[in-house]
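Model: Ready when you are.
Researcher: Fold this.
Model:
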Amino acid sequence: MPATVEIRRAADRAVTATPWLTSRHSFSFGDHYDPANTHHGLLLVNNDDIVEPETGFDTHPHRDMEIVTWVLRGELTHQDSAGNRGVIYPGLAQRMSAGSGILHSERNDSPTEPVRFVQMWVVPDETGVTPSYQQHEVGSELLEGGLVTIVSGIPGREAAITVHNRSAALHATRLRPGAAVTLPSAPYLHLFVALGRVAVDGAGDLAEGDAVRFTDAGARRVSAHEPSELLIWEMHAKLGAGNT
């Protein structure tokens, strides 16, 4: 498989806009379907959402999906039919495994402040697992610089939270201006600039909301022009290659 570097600009994302929600989709989602843009590796959804105060997603179902939520600003309240409840804030990683089926809601309970978060979906290795929920504080580790593995299903890979996929891991980093990290080397890599502006070897400058999809591209160095926050999926398989 030849090495590829595909840049996806923030302005090119499809947008769902309602009075209470602005959702920018890196991949096909809902009414926004593009057969040429359904996933990269194992990642099917990378939604950059802003939810207005005292609104949110009412109770709705999911099944057979690993759903990871990362808050950038504000707070998001999660509640589900398995009895889990949590308030997610910047620096707190959260994962919900929908498995055999679960109902959940996600709401912004603040009377004044919007919440901005990135929600990411990857397929599980197996269908029909028991639904589960996990959250863990990683904010202090991010302050130290470098990549922090916040979610992983890769055997032997330490992470704050587990995911039901043996070929996927999510890393995050917060970079000060001039600081740099080296991306993992993997068959499939998805880099999303959640905040700030960075330079990537072989891809050039990226601004907030931009993404790069790497295929067998090897380790790349990323340096920050300004305070930045990155989300990086490392994937060692692709959809349909042993995943159900």
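Researcher: Now this one.
Model:
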Amino acid sequence: MSKPLKPDLRVWRKAATVVLAAGRKSSGAAASSLPPTEGFRLLLLRRSMGQGFLPGAHVFPGGVLDAADRSADWLHLFAPHHLAPRFGLSPATPQRLTFPVLPDSRPEVENGDAAALPDDVAMRICAIREAFEEAGVLLLRTRGPRQIPESQDSDPEPDCSLEPPPDVSTWRARVRGDARHFLDLCAHLDCTPNIWALHDWSGWLTPFIPEKRHRFDTNFYLCCLREPPPIQPDLAEVVDCQWSSPSEATKSFLSEEIWLAPPQFYEIRRLENFASLSNLHKFCLEHASEGAERWLPIICVTADGMVFLYPGDELYLEDSDFLEKVLSTEKKTEEIMKEGKKLHRLVQHSRHLYSIHVTIQSKGKHIYPKNYVVNKSHL
């Protein structure tokens, strides 16, 4: 059984990320540039080289949970959709004890106003706020009655982002300076964060890296948009952006045009299972009752590389000792791979060469990437 972390271990910070998947534009050359089998693109933001975490990496929008994201001041703005248990979100999945158990990492809340909003609401607000701060995207909806499908067979369509206000730069500066101003912006626009458009997707914990003190417990959400909204990088934390299909992102990574950390590469390969935006959106709606799997990768250092082990792999150990250490072996990666039968792992051959090996069955309605092995000519 998993046991909680010791109090003296490194600091864990709650964070939220939103994977934006946008359909083809209604007209123009950009619409015809996508292969017929890939009817959506993903937003990737390039982080500044001055950032302490993943400098220069291409990532999905996201950041650390702020006390303002949990504030009770949101309640009046969400009314009447603030009723228990989850603000009109899909029914909560049963709570299960999962590995690892972490200490409470909630942000400090002023004036004793702890846990004013449910965690899954606050985390969605965090992801939406960060998308605005980093990329200028407003995942908001006007206040008022929510539209309900006419029948059980009628699924909601993918959403649209809100057109940014003329003074968007001023508002972004305010929000970056103090996250509480995001609520002020929503009130000014008479909108609420569109928490209902964000679907539980996955959860990633930062693996143990000796030189890093801060580690993150990050919720990944997926949001389907009908068309790609205009993106305005903040030019501070984020210096560039691109919309790429999963296969385009993989090719850009292999050609060293961009760099992806293992979780982003894994998620991009997972998303290549979906042929269209409608296919992906339908999966998200059906997947809602499953909740999200939350994983702590365990790093195995080999004689010539590194392997990231995920739950279900035969070498993965649900042992709290591995929260603060890595596995190591004198064997080469190829030897380790030949010996394995029950696999769920990402092999890092070099900075721009990853392989994914999955031989286990996904749980419930979850979906894992297909095996992806780089051509030997790259090695």
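Researcher: Key takeaway?
Model: The radius of gyration is 21 Å.
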